Amino acid sequence: MCGILGGTERNWNYEAGLKNILHRGPDGNQIKKYSSVCLAFCRLAIQDLSQAAMQPMSSADDKVHIVFNGEIYGYQELKKQLSQKYDFRTTSDTEVILNAYLEFGQDFVKRIDGIFAIVIYDERIQKLLVYRDRIGVKPFYYYYDGNDFAFASELKALEKTINDRKLSVDFTALYDYLFYQYIPEPKSLYKNVYKLRPATMMIFNLSTHRIEEIKRYWRLHVNATIGRKRKREDITEELRFLLNKTIKEQMISDVPLGVFLSGGIDSSIVSYESKKLKPDIQAFSIGFEEAERDESFLAQKFCRENYIDLLCKRMKSSDFCALKGCMALWYDEPFGDDSAFPTYLVSKLARGKCTVVLTGDGGDEVFGGYGRYKSIQLLGDRVPVEEVWKKYGSSGNTTELLRKRWKILKSYDPYWHFRKYYVEDLPTYTRMRYLDLKTYLPEDVLTKVDRASMAVSLEARVPFLAQRIVEFGFSLSQEEYLSDGELKGCLKDAYKEVIPQEIMFGIKKGFGLPSNYLWKEKKEDNMYIGLLKTQWNDLFMMKNGTMCLRKRS
Fold it and tell me: Which end of the chain has fewer beta carbons closer than 10 Å to its terminal beta carbon, N or C?
């Protein structure tokens, strides 16, 4: 897990940009300037700790170069195939990607699975080829003004790199933030700066200085049926086999590895499977002093029963006060999920013992676990997206006021992001799983975990979002994954003998902050306006009734 950066303008300040993301890679960094592009990299050493695995990495003929953030799982099999033709100098997954591109061309990505943002500079054709993983675990920002191009793992690195270019705030993106609690792809805080969509590749032509192509390289097949065709026992057997295989692949690491354990079913399953494979696995958990939000007692009970070593910390309101000003530092643009704070604390707790953790993220989206799905089902079939949104939360009257302040047209459709992935013809639960997989999961959950964990140089892996697990989950009919009408029913069937009943069937309290932590912000017409003001006072100021951009330090 690392940080990547690059661009087409030789005189940009890549040193300053890279300095701003060294938390993503404290184990070494390097900047290389080629004929048409500069590539920069900071390393968090996970696989092959030798200097030979450093990036940018080049092909044997020095014509193709790569920078890569993430991990490729199960790459050893592909390496065996490639070894018949290519000599490998390292045991890293980076070199496997590079040689796979040399062998299979731009479609090599269909032969790998993992969490990644990959940039390949091919001097032979004078093109940059960019890839982002299928679900959107790893971030990728890029700047393009019609001529010059730059990219980075985090927005702050782009700001510092291209500081000779004036970046203008996109106020429609801020308006979207008030709707979604995040700025949805492909937008960012700024005009001319974008997020590459998940499961997408982009080709930038260095000769013409044009984005030549942006296309999806993977599409998820969704089972649109309701009834059961497969036997329950066959589904549970295959599910346990796939999860065990996936977790075994994701536990490969040359540095210490642990697990996040929240007290919910998904992280408990990951912890259980990890314990079978690594008996001395270390688990990490965050609870709250406030009983209304605390679930750490469930994690502690589970670990006692399964002989798992657990390190647990209870968050206090003073912890929040100490971190309150860090949101802008972590996320670079408005982000409204307050569970970022406990996520940061559990990441910091884990980083004291290990460099890699497995998490339970994605289980709710892949197997249908959110309680709101039940209330949406009561609305009936073919429900307009506007009605569904009311079950997610409302932006209140504040957005109407800021439509005026930020000169946003009345015709602007705030539902555009949801509408893009909302398929009315799908059964209710399947429709909502797919919507969350494409919106809430990558834009909120995975963004939250990536920035919070990488802020302390910790790699977070997500077994439930491996390609084979996602495709298996969405190959099931609604009745098959909601066995007996239970949310995540097939998961519960598969692990009912090993996961305690109070975890399996208890009401999940979530990871959000206790209400008293945010009482000041909740006095605002909209809580996220409150967060925008308190977290981003270094970024915005009010001038003549309009929120304006400050000069960032």
Answer: C
pLDDT digits (tens, 9 = 90+) for 213-231: 999 999 999 999 999 999 9
Residue 547: pLDDT over 90? no
Q: Which of 205, 250, 184 lies closest to 46, judged by CA?
A: 250
Query: Domains (ranges, CATH) in the chain?
Result: 2-216 (3.60.20.10), 232-532 (3.40.50.620)
Half-sphere exposure of 168 (CA within 13 A, CB side): 7
Q: Find, among 260, 280, 271, the residue nearest to 347 by Cα.
A: 260
Contacts (Cβ under 8 Å, ≥6 apart) of 400: none
- Structure confidence by residue, pLDDT tens digits, 254-276: 999 999 999 899 999 999 999 99
Residue 349 and residue 302: Cα distance in Å, rounded?
Answer: 19
pLDDT band at 380 (very low <50, low <70, confident <90, very high): confident
Torsion from C-alpha of 514, 520, 521, 524, nearest 10 degrees: 130
Residue 100 has pLDDT above 60, yes or no: yes
- Number of other residues whose CB lies within 10 A of the CB of residue 221: 8
Starting at the edge strand that comes first in sequence, how are the strands of the sheet with 57-58 ordered? Answer: 57-58, 64-73, 113-122, 127-132, 200-205, 210-216
Tokens 């930038």: give the residue: 204
SS (H, E, C) 439-455: CHHHHHHHHHHHHHHHC
Q: With the C-alpha atoms ordered 81, 86, 91, 97, is the resulting torsion angle positive or negative?
A: negative
Classify residue 154 by its DSSP letter.
S
Could you give the percent of the chain with pLDDT greater than 90?
74
pTM higher than the cut 0.70: yes
Residue identified by tokens 């953030």 is 69
User: Which among 464, 449, 415, 450 has a CA at the least distance from the CA of 435?
Assistant: 415
Cis status of the peptide bond prior to 442, with omega within 30 of 0? no
On the question of pLDDT at 395 being above 80, the answer is: no
CB atoms within 10 A of CB 424: 11
The strand order across the sheet containing 309-315 reads: 309-315, 282-288, 257-260, 356-358, 459-461
Burial-class residue 31 by CB neighbours within 10 Å (0-12, 13-18, 19+). middle
- pLDDT of 182: 93
